[in-house]
Amino acid sequence: MARIVLDARNIVRDYNVAGGLFRGGRTVHAVKGVSFTVEQGKTLAIVGESGCGKSTLARIVTLIDAPTAGDLFIDGEKVDIARHGLSKEMRRKVQIVFQNPYGSLNPRQKIGDILGEPLKINTDTPASERRDRAMAMLKKVGLGPEHYNRYPHMFSGGQRQRIAIARALMLNPSLLVLDEPVSALDLSVQAQVLNLLADLQDEFKLTYVFISHDLSVVRYIADDVMVMYFGEAVEYGPRDAVFTNPRHAYTQTLFAATPRADVESIKARLARKRAA
Q: How many structural domains comprise the chain?
């Protein structure tokens, strides 16, 4: 039986918003009782438009925010950061890759230091071993030892995202949250990064939560899909079932409005541009 890495049960997240001069405060229900599980080595894609609650849910899964109600289990262990805080061991288990690779990398740090920093903060790994592991991880994401002493501004957007992925994997996490990881990249680079993520998942048996507004990208990488709308999960199931027979009207609207952006469609689109 497959191991459940992430188990979220009836997750609720409310925000209290202060009122103005002529209006009292109010409560915003950002996430409304969402439940899901993710097995080891699988990818759950959470999709929806801006404001649907998917980024709020990502902050809860990455242990940045605590839910207002509901239970969150990681590797079978219940996590309650509001009451018990967050241990170093649990912090190592969950890592995140952000949408903007340049904004998430310290421009004053060399790449080697960026990759070694998670080990320096969270482990007792000696400097020589940190360097060796950073070099090895650079190779895993398609970069070389010559990149170790360079700065983030010296890389392309796709290369910076590879570095961000490498940094997230330095602690051997159980769960990797990918928050719009390819939306800021050119179409051809999107395909390269998606292929890299798929290869790394196969090699390390990684578990992904993939946040996206683009169902076409999701179709390439996801095993399961959860569609969010105004804080609720309106559709949830295996990728093929969701894409073959979307049941909710909102999901059907997303399919109609989203251009195909899987790897083969990207290649075809680039070929049409060259021909034109």
A: 1
User: Is 18 in contact with 53 (CB distance < 8 Å)?
Assistant: no
Q: How confident is the chain (276 residues) per 10-residue block, as mean pLDDT?
A: 92 87 82 96 93 91 94 93 84 90 88 95 93 96 95 93 96 94 86 94 95 85 95 94 90 72 63 74
Q: Which residues of 8-39 are buried (b: 16+ CB within 10 A; e: fewer)?
A: bbebbbeeeeeeeeeeeeeeeebbbebebebb
Q: Which domain holds residue 193?
A: 4-275
Residue 273, SS3 per DSSP: helix
Q: In the structure encoding, which two tokens stand for residue 121, read together?
A: 């903060």
The pTM of the whole model exceeds 0.90: no
CATH of residue 14's domain is 3.40.50.300
Please, are residues 152 and 106 in contact by the beta-carbon 8 Å criterion? yes
User: Do 1 and 33 touch, CB atoms closer than 8 A?
Assistant: no
